[in-house]
């Protein structure tokens, strides 16, 4: 069974529908296989061919499409664990 990314990659959330599942839309000239995973720090790691980098908000707003509402440029950081107020 195919599993969505949301279970393991929950660093970003759609501001429109609160969804956490996304699809990457990369340019057609990207060579190699694209995979998305999470590192031990719960950061989104994108691997394209031999290159690996950590997705930031700018990357998400450029290349990620929300699976739920189809929104783009709609991402905000989202951390599963509650952040205590200072
Ligand atoms: Zn959405």
A few lines on this structure:
By secondary structure, the chain is mainly beta. Helices cover 8% and strands 30% of the residues. The chain has one domain (12-77).
Indicate the mean pLDDT: 82
Number of domains: 1
Q: Please trace the helix and strand order, writing H or E for each element.
A: EEEEEHEE
Distance between termini? 42 Å
Ligand catalogue: zinc ion
Structural class: mainly beta
Low-pLDDT residue intervals, each spanning 5 or more residues: none
Please report the number of helical segments. Answer: 1
Descriptive notes:
With 86 residues, the chain is mainly beta. It has one domain. 8% of the residues lie in helices and 30% in strands. It contains one helix and seven strands, in the order E-E-E-E-E-H-E-E. Strands 3-4-5 form a three-stranded antiparallel β-sheet, with no helix packed on it. The protein has a two-stranded antiparallel ribbon with strand order 1-7. Strand 3 and strand 4 form a beta hairpin. The structure holds zinc ion.
